[in-house]
Design a protein that fits this description.
In chain A, strands 2-1-3-4-5 form a five-stranded parallel sheet, with helices on both faces. Chain A has six helices and five strands; from the N terminus they run βαβαβαββααα. Chain A is an alpha/beta fold. Chain A has one domain: Flavodoxin domain (Rossmann fold, 3-Layer(aba) Sandwich), CATH 3.40.50.360. By secondary structure, chain B is mostly helical. Chain B has one domain. Helices cover 69% and strands 0% of the residues of chain B. Chain B contains one helix and no strands. The longest helix of chain B is centred in the middle third of the chain and has 33 residues. In chain B, 8% of the residues are buried. Classes of the chains: A alpha/beta, B mainly alpha. Chains A and B meet through β2, α5 and α6 of A and α1 of B.
């Protein structure tokens, strides 16, 4: 049997849209995961063009016990008039890994988010009976769902309350522009790696 | 209140960049705290 990856129970696979309209939700979720004491992992973390994207995603899923999947961006693309299926596809991979993987993979648990908690019945009806949480496209609600999910699953006593995390996130957003300026980075063009440096850096300096 | 928790780094993180970012946020925090002190001193002065 394969060896349990290092920090397996601390890695959280973030499966969500990466377009500009979702940026604030994404940043709020990544912040909440770090502030709860976990490591967010996502397809954007490695710029290695030599590895096929789906291969990277499967490698990340393999080392994450937890998954956060946001299926809210199912609307039609304005240019192609087709929906984007990456998030449901990767959700399927995560659940498949839990179901058919051996050893520690069956410990995997996930949180599924949508804009509305019941809308999924119309577009992913096989998922009926599962608990999907609605965030109303509100970062504060998304932070609360992420926090409660990780706290319930792990029973860790060191996880701050949802309003504390949100207040800290708000302060981080205020401090970010000046820090980015000091670092000579471009606030409008921050790759995931830089974003996680910023969030983790802020959390280190503003430890609870 | 300290909850004595460990903040975890991303496995692909470079410590040198982490240090640089922390330094930047430390500077921002210090400036923010100094601003807050000045503001509270100003409002205390007005009340007198």
């Amino acid at each position: 049997m394969a060896r349990r990856p290092r920090n397996y129970a601390s890695h959280v696979f973030i499966n969500c849209p990466f377009d500009d309209g979702y940026k604030s939700m994404f940043e709020a979720i990544v912040f909440a995961v770090f502030d709860c004491g976990f490591i967010p992992r996502c397809a954007l973390e490695n710029g290695d063009s030599g590895t096929v994207r789906i291969e990277k995603i499967m490698n990340i899923i393999a080392v994450c016990k937890y998954g956060i999947h946001d299926v809210s961006a199912i609307q039609l693309d304005s240019a192609t008039q087709l929906p984007r299926f990456n998030v449901p596809y990767e959700l399927g991979l995560f659940i498949g890994c839990k179901r058919y993987g051996t050893g520690y993979h069956d410990e995997k648990v996930c949180l599924v988010l949508d804009a509305d908690g019941l809308r999924y019945r119309s577009f992913i009806s096989d998922f009926s009976g599962q608990d999907i949480r609605g965030h109303g496209n509100n970062p504060k609600t998304a932070i609360a769902h992420v926090r409660h999910f990780l706290a319930e699953q792990t029973q860790r006593k060191t996880i701050p309350g949802a309003s504390t995390i949100f207040d800290r996130y708000t302060q981080y957003l205020k401090d970010k522009p000046n820090s980015v300026k000091i670092l000579n980075w471009d606030i409008n063009d921050l790759p995931f790696k830089d974003l996680q440096y910023l969030i983790n850096g802020w959390l280190s300096v503003n430890a609870l | 209140m300290s909850v004595n928790r460990k903040l975890l780094s991303h496995p692909l993180s470079k410590p040198s960049i982490e240090k640089k970012v922390e330094k930047a946020f430390l500077k921002v925090r210090t400036e923010r705290e100094q601003r807050e002190v000045r503001t509270s001193q100003k409002s205390a002065g007005k009340q007198k």
